[in-house]
Amino acid sequence: MDHKPKQVIRARLKEKGWDQGELARQLGVSSTTVSRVLSSPLLRSGSQWPTVLKALGLELVIQPKTVVDDPSPAPPGDPDDTDPGGGA
């Protein structure tokens, strides 16, 4: 499914049963701020990001976050935490 980011955001608000006022409360900002954010462009005019992404064969995707059951930090010695210099 190819959706425009703002359509996805508005659909998510509806799915959660939220209006702009509730989103403002959740964010701790005014409804005016939320309205301004939702009506402004996601990327500013003249931004080179779309060109960079296109050249690299990448796309920006907005999707629901994956919920992780155990948000604890990785234990020491995590395989992703390697020292290419051979240690201290």
DSSP strand tally: 0
- CA radius of gyration is 19 Å
Question: What structural class results from the helix and strand content?
Answer: mainly alpha
3D shape = globular
Topology as a string of helices (H) and strands (E): HHHH
Q: Describe the largest sheet.
A: none
As a percent range, the share of helical residues equals 40-55%
Query: What's the average pLDDT?
Result: 78
Low-confidence stretches: none
Separation of termini?
49 Å
Q: Can you count the helices?
A: 4
The portion of residues forming beta strands comes to under 5%
Short description:
This protein is mostly helical.
Describe, in plain words, how this protein is organized in 3D.
- The protein is mainly α.
- The protein has a domain at 5-55.
- Helices cover 41% and strands 0% of the residues.
- The chain is globular and about 40 Å long.
- The model has no long low-confidence stretch (mean pLDDT 78).
